[in-house]
């Protein structure tokens, strides 16, 4: 059963990541880096490129790239404080033929991540289903050992991990989606009351891909909901929203917020944009980030002050 192979470092309890303690991590303690990845999505290459029917699908394409990313993170010095995967951990939807095997191999792949680097999971549309239900959410929580939304402090930064399927299609889980929104307000108030050095948000589906006023399409979230949320985050002092789902790099600014859309670790849809991950360097007064193909991840994250 997948739950037995879940790394201790990725578990949550009461919507908090257990790997980080509030007492130790809620204060600024100097610059640090973390890894932001997205869409490991085991099985997508065979479905999307090779057009295989599900019984024939394999996922060595994605496992190979994910292992390259993990090995690079393990070698990095100074060590990344965490490795977050912004959704679509696997490609097979809940209840479909390859789902259990992909979950098992995903856990087995991440066994190689250094235990000193907490693994942070974000749920995506493939993880929960495009129209999530209470049952698919429970299945995800059981399999990945992590809540569908939660928070964690890291070095004075308050990190809020969201379930963007509630934003995309709450039709079967309206009560849970309402509770999620109420919880977000509470987290933003909490971050403010604790004078967080920065507030970062992580979710799978971006609010927008290039510009906050672009039209709704498959890879972004609807308006006017998009602007309602961006205004809420902006007035609460959120500095960045990190996302995936697009399988290309993207993002842009909305007032004081930077939205960062990161290409897949697994299959990239971008022309001349190999799959990879993003290194984020966090300073007291700012943050910087850079995307690297999995073949070209540096040993040194390039923190200006160590
Ligand atoms: Fe996705």
TrEMBL record:
It catalyses: O-phospho-L-seryl-[protein] + H2O = L-seryl-[protein] + phosphate; O-phospho-L-threonyl-[protein] + H2O = L-threonyl-[protein] + phosphate. The keyword Hydrolase applies. Its EC number is 3.1.3.16. The keyword Protease does not apply. Keywords: Cytoplasm, Hydrolase, Metal-binding. Pfam families: Metallophos. GO terms for cellular component: cytoplasm. Its cofactor is a divalent metal cation. Residues 73-248 form the Calcineurin-like phosphoesterase domain. One of its GO terms (molecular function) is protein serine/threonine phosphatase activity. It is an enzyme of class 3 (hydrolase). It is found in: Cytoplasm. Belongs to the metallophosphoesterase superfamily. CPPED1 family. This is Serine/threonine-protein phosphatase CPPED1.
């Amino acid at each position: 059963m997948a739950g037995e192979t879940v790394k201790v470092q990725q578990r949550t309890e009461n919507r908090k990541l257990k790997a980080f303690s509030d007492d130790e991590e809620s204060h600024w303690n100097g610059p640090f880096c973390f890894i932001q990845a997205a869409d490991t999505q085991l099985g997508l290459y065979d479905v999307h490129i090779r057009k295989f029917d599900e019984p024939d699908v394999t996922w060595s394409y994605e496992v190979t790239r994910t292992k390259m990313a993990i090995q690079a993170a393990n070698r990095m010095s100074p060590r990344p404080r965490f490795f977050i995967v912004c959704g679509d951990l696997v490609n097979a939807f809940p209840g479909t033929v390859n789902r259990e095997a992909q979950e098992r191999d995903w856990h087995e792949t991440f066994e190689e991540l250094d235990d000193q680097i907490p693994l942070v999971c974000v749920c995506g549309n493939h993880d929960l289903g495009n129209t999530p239900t209470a049952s698919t959410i429970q299945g995800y929580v059981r399999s990945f050992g992590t809540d569908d939304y939660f928070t964690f402090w890291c070095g004075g930064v308050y990190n809020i991990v969201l379930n963007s399927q509630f934003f995309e299609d709450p039709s079967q889980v309206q009560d849970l989606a309402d509770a999620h929104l109420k919880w977000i307000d509470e987290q933003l108030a909490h971050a403010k009351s604790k004078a967080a050095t920065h507030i970062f948000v992580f979710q799978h589906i971006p609010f927008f891909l290039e510009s906050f006023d672009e039209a709704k399409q498959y890879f972004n979230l609807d308006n006017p909901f998009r602007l309602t949320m961006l205004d809420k985050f902006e007035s609460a002092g959120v500095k960045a929203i990190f996302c995936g789902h697009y399988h290309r790099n993207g993002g842009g600014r909305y007032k004081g917020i930077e939205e960062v859309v990161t290409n897949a670790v697994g299959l990239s849809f971008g022309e001349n944009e190999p799959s990879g991950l993003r290194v984020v360097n966090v300073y007291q007064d700012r943050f910087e980030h850079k995307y690297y193909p999995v073949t070209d991840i540096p040993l040194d994250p390039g923190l200006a002050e160590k």
